[in-house]
Write a structure and sequence with these properties.
Blueprint: H1 38-41, E1 53-55, H2 60-84, H3 92-105, H4 109-123, E2 125-126, H5 129-133, H6 142-148, E3 150-151, H7 153-166, E4 174-181, E5 186-195, E6 198-202, E7 210-211, E8 218-225, E9 228-232
Parallel strand pairs: 2-3
Antiparallel strand pairs: 1-9, 4-5, 4-8, 5-6, 6-7, 8-9
Helix pairs in contact: 3-4, 3-6, 3-7, 4-7
InterPro entries: Papain-like_cys_pep_sf, Transglutaminase-like_Cys_pept
Pfam families: Peptidase_C93
Length: about 260
């Protein structure tokens, strides 16, 4: 992938998000409620939420991410130079990101993931793309996000994905997950890391990491790994914190974030 290898391109999405709390941790303790057939899939798929996903080979998301990947290629070089000679590094953003990576490397296991999640949540101010760039669909690379000191949820997720990889987490154990917030009616992105066979969500909306099985009020839509972006083949509604189901979305109504109609998928 752009930042670490020459694998397939990622894709970008429109997402609206802010640094808020989802709710008390106690509300996240119950199991998930999935659509028919999902219980069987959870035993077969290694992706977050246990659902199968299919690669996206075309569309606006793919084209958007090709541009982002080129920027990540450039940043990979800059970070390597700064990591080799920090005294002569001319990028405060690179030094800030590398310092977070250093703190993560000094820890192991869950503590490493938690340190990077917390540090990036604190380093970036929540700000919409429209407020920051005057556009509604901008995915920023990590050094751009750190230089601005602000971003929205996909900017947090990308920065965490990159920082975790630099801190030594295997790319096989890293994802970016795009979900539909069924309460707010908007899309939301988080980084995900697998630890001891369990996927933890690293969310800009909360400091505590939550396992995928304990997420509430979201519908998983897309997942990104080292090879590219995929659409979940099934998009079950994760149980609400109140125990009441949100009305399901028809399978053919799922639209790639950033698109205006299913015909643009």
């Amino acid at each position: 992938m752009g930042f670490f290898s020459h694998s397939h391109a990622w894709r970008a999405v429109i997402l609206a998000c802010g640094l808020t709390w989802i709710g008390p941790a106690a509300d996240l303790a119950a199991g998930t409620l999935m659509s028919p057939g999902a219980a069987g899939l959870i035993r077969k798929s290694a992706e977050p939420f246990g659902l199968f996903a299919s690669a996206l080979s075309w569309g606006a998301l793919r084209e958007k991410w090709l541009d982002v990947e080129r920027k990540l290629d450039d940043e990979r070089v800059q970070l390597a130079l700064c990591d080799g000679d920090r005294d002569r590094c001319a990028s405060p953003a690179a030094l800030q990101l590398l310092a977070i990576v250093d703190d993560g490397r000094a820890r192991e296991g869950r503590a490493r993931l938690g340190e990077i999640n917390r540090a990036i949540n604190l380093a970036i101010r929540p700000m919409s793309d429209l407020a920051q760039y005057g556009e509604v669909d901008v995915w920023s690379s990590p050094l751009v996000t750190f230089a601005h000191g602000a971003g929205d949820c996909e900017d947090y997720a990308i920065a965490k994905f990159v920082a975790l990889r630099l801190a030594g987490i295997s790319p096989d154990d890293l994802r970016i997950v795009i979900m539909r917030d069924t309460i707010r009616g908007e899309d939301h992105a988080v980084a995900a890391a697998r630890l001891d066979g369990h996927w933890l969500m690293l969310d800009n909306r909360r400091m505590a990491m939550v396992e995928d099985g304990d997420v509430r009020n979201y519908r998983p839509m897309f997942v990104i790994d080292q090879y590219g972006a995929m659409r979940y083949d099934e998009t079950p509604l994760l149980a609400s914190a109140t125990g009441q189901d949100v009305p399901p979305i028809a399978p053919n109504s799922a639209v790639q974030p950033g698109m205006t109609s299913p015909s643009n998928q």
